[in-house]
Design brief:
This protein has 384 residues and is mainly β. The protein has four helices and 26 strands. The longest helix is centred in the last third of the chain and has 16 residues. The two termini are 54 Å apart.
């Protein structure tokens, strides 16, 4: 056993307890309890003496579910498992051919690639060595692989940096095949929200829909593994339903956020002006922009409006103006008066996009095409 433990230690494994030894008669078996710490991967390796030609190793949980086994035709079985929670497991060793002494060792942080025990023991080959076993029951995760909780935490940090505020604690849940779960969210009108739904690693079967109080789909997402953020800017408040569905059995982590008060529409913006403004903000969101700064302004005048604009290096911006019927034209000019972007169609909703690699001082000009009219100016800025 010493040479086997040395081989594992060279790959970073740690012996938890001193190896236990005992004798097994022909067809005899022994059951040994093993206490496992939460959030760890561990391995059990057993070695039989020359009198044992075949030694089987099985691991069961407290209710008898078989979590992993090695019953191949050799006398050095090995099982590797990972646990989410601490538990006492039962290890069953059986001498299915022959009799003799057995040694059992428990290892923490075993390598993903198992040392070739057959070669280490001088058996002359590796065909008899079974590799790490996949648990037959879902008992946890490998700390070397990010869980859905880890992924949610990483995405949450990015959300907070971009001006979002958490609205509730994270929720961890699971779905049965072809099932869905509904979460009721009290969302306010005139706000933009971000909903993080992070499925377990490698899951591609989870989808999301956000339904308004009348049951209509506001937004949805299918490829959560690539982008787990669902965004929406709402003209109507009320009890919305976040519906999470899955084709297969799956786990997920979920949390919802709102943009802070700087990103809320003023209360005096109502009706189609509010809806139009939110539509512009929603378009920026659908293009992958996370609103870092949104400015709104209501104006009742027929004269051109010139707004100074400071743009940060490495940022992209959407400038929009929405009216209740007045035609509008937009132009963005640089410090020398040159037009760098414009929308001169004269519709009731005008918009221009502009990205810059340098910090720049610019001016946005809004020109109504009629004598008077009320309109809203929106600036959505994104950047690194």
């Amino acid at each position: 056993m010493d040479q086997v433990l040395r081989a594992f230690s060279l790959q970073g494994a740690r012996v938890v307890d001193a190896p236990r030894g005992f004798f097994l008669a022909p067809e005899g078996s022994a059951v040994l309890p093993v206490q496992i710490q939460r959030g760890q991967c561990f391995a059990l390796v057993a070695l039989g003496s020359e009198g044992i030609r075949r030694l089987e190793l099985r691991v069961h949980d407290a209710v008898g579910i078989n979590l992993g086994q090695d019953a191949a035709d050799h006398n050095h079985p090995y099982v590797r498992l990972c646990t989410r929670e601490g538990a006492q497991l039962n290890v069953v060793l059986r001498a299915s051919e022959g009799a003799g002494t057995v040694a059992l060792a428990l290892l923490a942080q075993p390598p993903t690639a198992t040392p070739d025990l057959a070669v280490i023991l001088g058996d002359g080959g590796s065909q008899s060595l079974a590799g790490p076993r996949t648990p037959r029951a879902n008992i946890g995760f490998d700390p070397a692989i990010e869980s859905e909780e880890d992924l949610l935490s990483r995405h949450r940090a990015r959300m907070l940096l971009r001006g979002y505020t958490t609205q509730a604690a994270p929720t961890l849940a699971s779905l049965q095949p072809l099932a869905h779960r509904d979460f009721v969210l009290p969302l306010e009108s005139g706000r933009c929200y971000g909903l993080l739904v992070v499925p377990e690693p490698d899951s591609t079967s989870v989808s999301v829909e956000l339904l308004d109080p009348e049951g209509r789909v506001v937004t949805n997402a299918r490829d959560l593994a690539r982008d787990p953020l669902v965004r929406g800017c709402l003209a109507q408040g009320g009890a919305y339903v976040l519906r999470i569905a899955s084709r297969d059995e799956s786990r997920f982590a979920m949390q919802w956020f709102s943009l802070d008060d700087r990103h809320q529409l003023s209360s005096n913006i109502a009706g189609e002006l509010r809806a139009g403004s939110l539509e512009l903000m929603g378009e920026a969101s659908r293009r992958g922009m996370r609103a870092l700064r949104v400015a709104h302004r209501v104006v009742s005048s027929g004269a051109p409006l010139v707004l100074p604009v400071s743009l940060r290096a490495g940022s992209c911006s959407l400038f929009g103006a929405v009216s209740s019927g007045t035609g509008l034209q937009l132009s963005l000019t640089d410090g020398h008066g040159g037009v760098v972007a414009s929308d001169t169609a004269g519709s009731s909703s005008a918009k221009v996009w502009y990205c810059t690699t340098l910090s720049r001082e610019m001016a946005l000009t809004v020109r109504p095409t009629t004598a008077r009219g009320e309109y809203v100016v929106v600036h959505v800025e994104d950047g690194t």
